[in-house]
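Hi U.,

Before I forget, here's the chain from the pilot set. I'm dumping it here mostly so it's searchable later in email.
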Amino acid sequence: MQHYTVHHFLHQLLTRRLIQRYSPEVRDRAVRMVFDHASEYGSQWEAIRSIASKIGCTGETLRTWVRKSEVDTGRRAGVPTEERVRIKELERENRELRQTNEILRKASAFFAQAELDRRPR
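Structure:
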């Protein structure tokens, strides 16, 4: 079981990992709007700021969604979301297996020592 510090909890809240304010549909639509209307603005950032103000999020939030979409669709280099999720699963599994191995190693040493202590000298 993980224990979270107050700082960690607040960070999670502030980055909306515990509370998601925008539905996936809103995110997808906003990202599509950036891609579809970017040519109408001087830069992608201008398009992002304009569209973000219309949907009620910050420009940085929408920029993050756009960057993730670009990576996921191969428009930008990086690790796609699906692979990132799989990597996290494998890291968790690896951590659990290491813990299990450590427990088994200690149990084996304990029982080996108990067997040695039990033998008459």
